[in-house]
Write a structure and sequence with these properties.
With 349 residues, the protein is mainly alpha-helical. It has two domains: 167 residues, no CATH class; 180 residues, no CATH class. It is 65% helix and 2% strand. The chain contains ten helices and two strands. Strands 1-2 form a two-stranded parallel ribbon. Helix 1 packs antiparallel against helix 5, helix 8 runs antiparallel to helix 9 and helix 9 runs antiparallel to helix 10. The longest helix is centred in the first third of the chain and has 30 residues.
Length: 349
């Protein structure tokens, strides 16, 4: 069994959904790059950039922009990433409209419709969070929610792709008890990965990724001073410009250390899940378990590399993208486990 079904067995719209998923990954990568390059406020207005459809390039355009926004003068290395990200996100919105139109035109009992409708509504909400990210000047709560929205969009598009792929695991009846026991475990695994991604989002939104430049210790100690109350105060008021962060070092260290602890918990649980998945003793489950383990190892190594090599943008962006890949692996695992059919004849597939 391969990941993708033969073309004649797929449902209408598969290629469109898969293409949208690829575009969503590019949008996420560009958004992460924009954030890590401190270009989140490269354009202080929305939806334009200093009043331009693209961004100011000519000297007279830059002069007018600087006059209009004296507190945020034009920085050429920050304007283009922000606007490229916005236009890529807009193209993703067009993809979701196309997916919904396609679903309506091919309406039927086996054709997903609610998911495309929800996807379009969610993309609109995600666009609003993109606007609030700028208008509220990188308020950490909004930045984190916007990042999680990006991961959610990719997950939903991938789920739609899997449904349109129209392929299910076919397992022998002997593994049915193990399959039933595995279902709640894979749900917990998905939630743990989502929680770790949320911690990562909160870490980067508060510029806490650089709070500890050493590994495996943090600030030269196994248990450095930490301020969890301020570090995880999600009720902080909107007010200042959050570019560069406003938390003190102890609060940022608390966030950073929490993300490290989350990585340990995630790794241990997914290793446990690796063993359980292989317990199904079927080729598709074994292949998926190996993929999960490989992506997990890559993600852990990238996280360590971020610290050891002083957070290079290329490594940090890749860390986020591999995190998205790990999330998609967990979505795939849940889909396969919950849609698997049992062959009562005992034939192994």
């Amino acid at each position: 069994m391969t990941l993708f079904n033969s073309p004649d067995l797929r449902k209408p719209g598969f290629r469109l959904a898969f293409s949208a998923c690829l575009v969503a990954i590019i949008v996420l990568g560009m958004g992460v790059f924009t954030r890590l390059a401190d270009a989140g406020l490269g354009c202080p207005d929305w939806p334009g950039c200093y009043g331009h459809v693209l961004w100011p390039t000519e000297d007279h355009e830059v002069a007018r922009a600087n006059e209009a926004y004296p507190e945020m003068p034009v920085e050429h290395d920050k304007t283009w990433p922000e606007m490229v990200h916005r236009y890529l996100a807009t193209s993703l919105g067009l993809f979701t409209i196309g997916i919904l139109v396609f679903a309506l035109r091919n309406r039927g009992p086996e054709q997903p419709l609610k998911l495309p409708v929800f996807l379009l509504a969610f993309i609109i909400l995600q666009g609003m969070f993109g606007m609030w990210t700028v208008t509220l000047k990188l308020w950490p709560q909004v930045v984190t929610a916007h990042l999680l929205g990006g991961f959610t969009t990719i997950s939903l598009l991938w789920l739609l792709t899997l449904r349109l792929n129209n392929q299910r695991w076919q397992l022998p009846a002997i593994v049915e008890p193990k399959l039933t026991a595995l279902r709640p475990l894979v749900v917990v695994g998905l939630l743990i990965v989502v929680g770790q991604i949320a911690l990562g989002g909160w870490t980067t939104s508060n510029y806490a990724d650089i709070a500890s430049p050493d590994f495996p210790r943090c600030q030269g100690a196994w248990l450095p001073p930490m301020d969890f109350a301020n570090g995880f105060n999600i009720a902080q008021q909107v007010g200042p410009n959050y570019l560069g962060g406003v938390l003190d070092n102890d609060a940022r260290v608390a966030i950073h250390v929490s993300h490290r602890i989350g990585a340990i918990i995630t790794s241990l649980y997914l290793l446990f899940l690796f063993v359980k998945l292989r317990g199904l003793a079927t080729a598709p489950a074994k292949r998926l378990s190996v993929v999960m383990l490989a992506v997990l190892v890559a993600q852990v190594l990238l996280g360590i590399s971020n610290i050891v090599f002083n957070f290079p943008i290329a490594v940090a962006v890749t860390h986020n993208l591999v995190g998205a890949l790990l999330l998609l692996v967990m979505v795939t695992m849940n889909y396969c486990v919950f849609t698997a059919t049992v062959n009562r004849g005992g034939v192994r597939v």
